[in-house]
Design goal:
Length: about 550
């Protein structure tokens, strides 16, 4: 049945306001603007509309006596079939196996899909740290509501999955859901041998891309189906290595190294496993081993974005090769534009170069890609502190601690900001929080103790500061850079430069902060400061 223009206008008005009572007066003004008509026109047209809809008992349009009408049927927005979905969250796949040891597999499949899909320049993919907030430990529980995930992470679609391992067979089910209305967009089931996991993941990635209607370049098509491991067992060992790496604990890192090395033993040409070793050795402050792993990974796969990202930050901290750092990070962004860690490292690097506007933009981009990661959110606090926006830094760091109240690094940076704002008691309290969270770690205890000395020095409590210097200045686990900070706060410039030069002789990675570190603000007019920057390469 064809609708007259006014009947269509009434239908449009009703479905644009589902569930809301529209008064007769309101509807008359909307449908017949600037025209005087009899009120009887409205119920007459409503009656015509009901007949067109095949309505029998107000199942579409409810009459509200003496007031007006309400559209009560479900309203669903239909997607244009040609419309490309440009943002996605891959939620952690649920392990439904009886064996909890298969957890590495469910996590690994999730991470591999995130990795493959994030290589596509036209698709924004949320990174691991944000999506793993939605990890479901109990397979009997439902996964997070896609609509809520879409609201929090700002994505248009959500991919979920469940895996079950039966003897040597992996059963995987996946579902693609519209984050706007929880509508099912696509689903599939896979049944493969454990030895065919990598091929199965290629199939999932390819089919997801088709459903998202993402346009691929020729290079992206090749990268999407590229398998990084020739040996299926090597791939499983790599997944176990990443599983322990993501715990970010010294014990977890050591276990990760074992699995990465085993993966390489199975497949000596496995570039991703070498990248895992690079990250582990950098975390453990083992530059010789990290450099060796980086060289091997690059030789095997120079187009791997993660290698360039990790190598770029390594060059920044240990080589003081700042032009090389910039080159590697830009190459990483070109190869893996959605890798939040690269944007995070790039923000830190350009902030230390004094390019604060650029650093803030990079930190914001990293946060867009990984909005629930405490580490990524802390980056903004770091950058704003170095830029001198202490109030903004406090806001960013308090937000970070809302995400994870036990994130020690954010407490530590917040303590530094409080000291710079002259809030010394608050700074000491935050450093005490860091110490308690460390659980007796000797290195962290020593670091916190020296930072307390810096607070006392800035506060004007010289005796307390000097006592801490006496206890820690010759300790092998205390950086001379930190001792220099105490002397600088005390106004003892000669002693500050003495310890800065010790840090230079030891090639302390902390010296990359010297150009912008507010702890040394009162030394910047001294010619020795410019000379030291020149020797480091920060002021060529």
């Amino acid at each position: 049945m064809a609708l007259t223009p006014k009947v269509f206008d009434i239908l449009l008005l009703l479905i644009q306001n589902p569930g809301r009572i529209l008064t007769k007066d309101e509807m008359m003004k909307q449908v017949w603007p600037d025209t005087t008509v009899e009120e009887a026109n409205l119920p007459r047209n409503i009656s015509t509309l009901r007949k067109a809809l095949g309505e029998e008992r107000d199942e579409y349009i409810e009459t509200i006596p003496w007031r007006g009408y309400r559209f009560v049927a479900e309203v669903k927005e239909l997607r244009d079939e040609s419309d490309q979905i440009d943002s996605l969250a891959v939620l952690p796949f649920v392990n439904e196996s009886a064996d909890p040891a298969a957890e590495y597999l469910s996590d690994g499949i999730t991470e591999d899909l995130i990795h493959k899909l994030s290589l596509l320049s036209s698709l924004e993919v949320m990174s691991r740290l944000s999506v793993f907030h939605y990890k479901v430990g109990d397979p009997k529980k439902s996964q997070a509501d896609a609509k809520e995930v879409g609201r929090v992470l700002g994505v248009r679609a959500v991919l979920t999955g469940r895996i079950r391992v039966i003897e040597n067979v992996v059963l995987v089910s996946v579902e693609l859901v519209d984050a706007g209305d929880n509508a099912h967009l696509w689903g599939a089931q896979y049944n493969r041998e454990l030895s065919d996991i990598s091929k199965m993941q290629e199939s999932i990635s390819r089919e997801v891309v088709q459903q998202l209607k993402v346009k691929l370049t020729t290079q992206e098509q090749q990268r999407l189906i590229q398998s990084h491991a020739e040996d299926p067992e090597a791939y499983q060992l790599y997944l176990k290595g990443r599983y322990f790496w993501n715990k970010l604990t010294p014990d977890g890192i050591r276990k990760a190294i074992q699995f990465f090395e085993q993966a390489i033993g199975k497949d000596p040409a496995y570039a991703l496993a070498y990248t895992g070793l690079l990250d582990c050795h950098t975390y453990l402050n083992q530059p010789v081993q990290a450099r060796r792993a980086a060289a091997q990974a690059l030789e095997l796969d120079p187009a791997l974005g993660e290698v360039h990202a990790s190598l770029g930050f390594f060059k920044f901290l240990y080589d003081w090769d700042f032009s090389g750092t910039e080159k590697e990070l830009k190459q990483a962004l070109k190869l893996s534009p959605n890798y939040a860690q690269t944007h995070h490292w790039h923000a830190i690097y350009v902030a230390h170069m004094g390019r604060f506007e650029e650093a803030i933009a990079k930190a914001a981009r990293a946060r867009e890609l990984d909005p629930l990661s405490p580490l990524i959110n802390q980056t903004m606090g770091n950058v704003l502190m170095l830029a001198g926006d202490y109030d903004g830094a406090v806001d960013a760091l308090l937000h970070t601690l809302e995400l994870d109240p036990h994130f020690a690094a954010a407490h530590s940076v917040l303590a530094c900001v409080y000291c710079l704002k002259g809030m010394y008691e608050e700074a000491l309290a935050r450093f005490e929080k860091v110490r308690s969270l460390a659980g007796g770690n000797v290195a962290i205890d020593a670091s916190v103790q020296v930072l307390r000395g810096w607070v006392y020095a800035a506060w004007g409590k010289k005796s307390e500061a000097m006592k801490i210097i006496a206890q820690n200045s010759e300790s092998p686990i205390v950086s001379p850079y930190s001792i220099a900070g105490i002397y600088a706060a005390l106004g003892e410039h000669d002693r500050a430069f003495e310890y800065l030069n010790r840090a230079f002789q030891a090639r302390s990675f902390q010296l990359v902060s010297l150009k912008v570190d507010p702890s040394f603000q009162n030394l910047r007019s001294d010619p020795r400061f410019e000379d030291l920057l020149y020797r480091i390469g920060l002021n060529p």
